[in-house]
Structures are given as structure tokens and as C-alpha cells.
Specification:
5-stranded antiparallel β-sheet; 112 residues; HIT family, subunit A; 5 strands; alpha+beta; binds guanosine-5'-monophosphate
Length: 112
């Protein structure tokens, strides 16, 4: 896989406003937020998109991503009010960075 800007963020070679980190996951503020709270949650291993996910091989990773989303919602105090999780996939899905990532959007009532 071709390396993306997110690999440099994982290695801390370029700055990001990190909000949560484990041995498998990194989460940081989106540089162009689309909501008052806009966090990107990424696996540290390089997978380009959800198209490359294999259900058994990556089961742990999906668990880690959703666990991180819930922890981040708690950190930002939005677990009760709610939040939106989005995976963009491929050109028609609006994906710009080909390192799998989950968007967590919150902080206002979101339109569709
Ligand atoms: P996608 O469109 O691929 O689903 O989302 C990629 C997201 O990454 C975009 O919302 C974009 O604003 C964000 N992004 C791109 N480059 C950077 C960067 O260098 N730092 C941060 N924090 N976010 C980035």
C-alpha cells in the first residue's frame, strides 16, 4: 500500500491534535472539521479502505475502532446526546486518504 499522510501522523513525524491512543489505534482532530467535534479514528496498521477488510482477520480491529469511538464520545461528553460514525470508501464514497479511518462527528444535531 502507498503510504499516506496518516502514517506520518502515526509515527509523530507531522503534528496532529491527538485525543486518544492505544497500541492499535490513534485518534486525532480532523484538520478541516465538518462538525463542532470531528475526530478521525485510525488503525495503526496500514489498510487502504473498508474494501480490504476481511471479517475474521480484522475482527479485532473493528472492535478496537468502535471501542475507541465510544471512549472518545465519553471524553467529549457526547455519549448521551449522540454522534455519527462514517467510513468513506473509494472515489464515489468521497474517500480522500487511503488509510482506513472512521469519522466521529458530534456536537450539534447533524443533518443528513
Ligand atoms: P476522507 O475524505 O478520506 O474520508 O477523510 C479524510 C479526512 O482527513 C478529511 O476529512 C481531511 O480533512 C482529513 N485530513 C487530511 N489530511 C489531514 C492532516 O494532515 N491532518 C489531519 N488532522 N486531518 C487531515
Amino acid at each position: 500500500m502507498t503510504e499516506t499522510i496518516f502514517s506520518k501522523i502515526i509515527r509523530k513525524e507531522i503534528p496532529a491534535k491527538i485525543v486518544y491512543e492505544t497500541d492499535t489505534i490513534l485518534a486525532f482532530h480532523d484538520i478541516h472539521p465538518k462538525a463542532p467535534i470531528h475526530i478521525l479514528i485510525i488503525p495503526k496498521i496500514e489498510i487502504p479502505s473498508v474494501r480490504e477488510l476481511a471479517s475474521r482477520e480484522h475482527a479485532f480491529l473493528l472492535g478496537d475502532l468502535f471501542d475507541a469511538a465510544n471512549k472518545i464520545a465519553e471524553i467529549f461528553g457526547v455519549k448521551e446526546k449522540g454522534f455519527r460514525l462514517i467510513f468513506n470508501c473509494g472515489p464515489d464514497g468521497g474517500q480522500e486518504v487511503y488509510h482506513l479511518h472512521m469519522h466521529l462527528l458530534a456536537g450539534k444535531k447533524l443533518g443528513f
